[in-house]
Write a structure and sequence with these properties.
Strand order of the largest sheet: 1-2
Helix content: 55-70%
Number of helices: 20
Number of domains: 2
Shape: globular
Strand content: under 5%
Oligomer: single chain
Radius of gyration: 25 Å
Largest sheet: 2 strands, antiparallel
Order of helices and strands: HHHHHHHEEHHHHHHHHHHHHH
């Protein structure tokens, strides 16, 4: 353990640099910024397929069903449009603090649309050009990420080399900023026009199909399995144990994969079909809610030692809302080898149990709805719209988690009680 500790102490600067990498920060910031539309779209789908039939029937009678379908189409179903804008905007902000990145975001959105093939709708012998939603949702997420990052980096390069139209002093900032973005818009726009034309000569037909077939599907095969999720969980918890923000280092790498799987599930549910992805970002967040630390807090309430009993009383209310920092840093769990095994491995065990319970049909498949941090236990899982998922979270947190923590806590509590008596 001492050698491992020294190893992570040496690795900490490198891991911190990875966690603070501007591209990873951009991905994380952009994904987090889409949470509002995703939650809104998730609730729209949830209302459409609400398990109590009186709710969707009432919505249909009141004329809300088509409106909620539209909400889903332009939130979850148009996620790629938000991501491509945010990727470019946030990347520019991370490189050029004085530039808000809005111009780059607009250029990225324009470039994304340039490489998106148009479709035709024939109605009453009249042909109308239309933009298909195929590449605007989950299937276009990776295209959006790549285009957003490329456009953002090109925009930064052009601005750093002063390839811009400079206006005289005294010109209002709004006007000078518009002209400063003129050359980047033209240069990057022409580049993506050429890209669209070149992909038209390939068997893929367009850039989106190429990225989806060559990058997104293979990555999903690697990162979209329960074993990959277990590995991610282990790496995150090991980093957390050694005081490194494992979420910032690891999660940006897999969020696009897991989130796209959730968006596919939501799209299927909105069409009245069964979701086909067992795992996803929603699955991970619900199953590993609070890092399963709530079980430790519950045990502390019945501790013999005053130290743990007081910490449990102070921590129980925040822990019921998923806020477990008082325990993580108050026990502490970081670099505390007495609790290393449950702290690192409990999430993995919960993920395996939840996966096979879903695989065997004991628990319903998650619809992929995203929720906000801070919802209390049970309500956090309730957005998935199935009582079996709520029960799953309650069982994991209130029964399985305390059992997993018990042997290690019993020993620590006994030692603390002995020390207090002495």
């Amino acid at each position: 353990m001492k050698k491992m500790k020294l190893f992570f102490e040496k690795m900490t600067p490198t891991l911190n640099r990875i966690g603070n990498n501007r591209y990873l920060l951009t991905i994380m910031e952009s994904m987090m910024a889409t949470l509002g539309p995703i939650i809104l779209g998730s609730f729209a789908v949830l209302l459409l397929v609400f398990p109590i039939k009186v709710v969707p029937e009432a919505l249909k009678d009141w004329g809300f069903t088509p409106i909620l379908s539209t909400v889903n189409t332009f939130t979850v179903g148009a996620l790629a449009l938000y991501i491509v804008f945010l990727m470019a905007r946030n990347l520019v902000g991370n490189f050029l603090p004085k530039d808000n990145g809005t111009a780059a975001g607009i250029i990225a959105l324009m470039s994304f649309l340039f490489v998106t093939p148009m479709g035709n709708i024939v109605a009453k012998k009249v042909t109308t050009a239309a933009l298909p939603t195929t590449w605007l949702g989950a299937q276009g997420v990776f295209s959006a990420m790549i285009i957003g990052l490329v456009v953002g980096r090109l925009y930064v390069y052009i601005r750093q080399h002063n390839w811009t139209v400079k206006m005289p002093n005294g010109v209002p900032p709004m006007v000078s900023n518009a002209f400063a973005a003129l050359i980047p818009t033209v240069v990057i726009g022409f580049l993506f026009i050429l890209v669209a034309r070149l992909f038209a000569f390939t068997s893929y037909g367009n850039m989106h199909q190429f990225i989806y077939s060559v990058i997104q599907l293979p990555l999903r095969g690697l990162g979209g399995s329960i074993w990959a999720m277990i590995l991610v969980s282990l790496l995150m918890q090991i980093l957390w144990f050694f005081g490194i923000h494992g979420t910032n280092v690891i999660l940006p790498l897999v969020t696009p994969i897991w989130l796209s799987m959730d968006m596919e599930n939501l799209a299927l549910v909105a069409k009245g079909q069964t979701p086909n992805n067992i795992i996803g970002l929603a699955f991970f967040n619900v199953v590993t809610w609070s890092g399963l630390v709530l079980g430790l807090v519950l045990l502390m309430l019945f501790a013999k030692s005053k130290q743990y009993k007081e910490l449990g009383r102070l921590s129980i209310i925040p822990a019921m809302f998923g806020i477990t920092e008082p325990v993580i840093f108050g026990t502490p769990l970081v670099l505390n080898f007495n609790f290393a095994i449950p702290f690192i491995f409990n999430n993995m065990i919960a993920l395996i149990i939840a996966y096979f319970a879903t695989k065997l049909g004991i628990v319903a498949t998650f619809i992929g709805a995203q929720t906000v941090f801070g919802l209390p236990l049970g309500f956090f899982a309730g957005v998935e719209g199935k009582i079996s998922i709520v029960i799953l979270q309650l069982v994991i947190q209130l029964i399985i988690s305390p059992i997993l923590w018990y042997p290690w806590f019993k020993r620590a509590d006994k030692e603390a009680y002995k020390a207090e008596k002495e």
